[in-house]
Design a protein that fits this description.
three-stranded antiparallel β-sheet, transmembrane helix, TIGR02588 family protein, 6 strands, alpha+beta, transmembrane, membrane, 41% strand
Length: 140
């Protein structure tokens, strides 16, 4: 029994040599972490801050229950996120506002597209102009 204990101590107390597969996995993992850190550092250094650039597009999109429905698309072409975006669509005739509809979008990330729908009570055919504008937004 004492010989077995001595043999066990001698076997466990030797150097822990890693095999080739462990070194390869370690090397690949280290390279991946370094590449990710390098990429993120490069992006941080080269990216210039820019304000949100919101573009509003609208399309007549009637349905059976909402004949005066419009689909509103908001494109954020800027370099920063916009929060609490308020959009207003208004029907005008002869320079006078007939009706307005508002749309609120909670979050518009940079270089993104968000959609929503608005309904009018009045027929847009009665108006001369349909105008869309961004009323407000804030930075996160």
């Amino acid at each position: 029994m004492t010989e077995e204990k001595g043999a066990y101590k001698a076997k466990g107390s030797g150097d822990d040599d890693k095999n080739a597969l462990e070194w390869i996995v370690f090397g690949v993992s280290l390279m991946m972490v370094l590449c990710i850190l390098g990429y993120l550092s490069y992006q941080t250094y080269t990216e210039k801050p820019a304000t949100p650039d919101l573009v509003v597009q609208y399309f007549h999109d009637p349905s059976a229950h909402a004949p005066q429905r419009y689909r509103v698309v908001v494109l954020n072409q800027g370099g920063e996120t916009a929060e609490e975006v308020q959009i207003e669509l208004s029907l005008e005739k002869g320079g006078e506002q007939l009706e307005k509809a508002e749309l609120s979008i909670a979050y518009a990330p940079k270089e993104s597209k968000r959609e929503g729908w608005v309904n009018f009570k009045e027929s847009p055919a009665e108006a001369d102009t349909l105008m869309a504008r961004v009323v407000s937004y804030k930075r996160p």
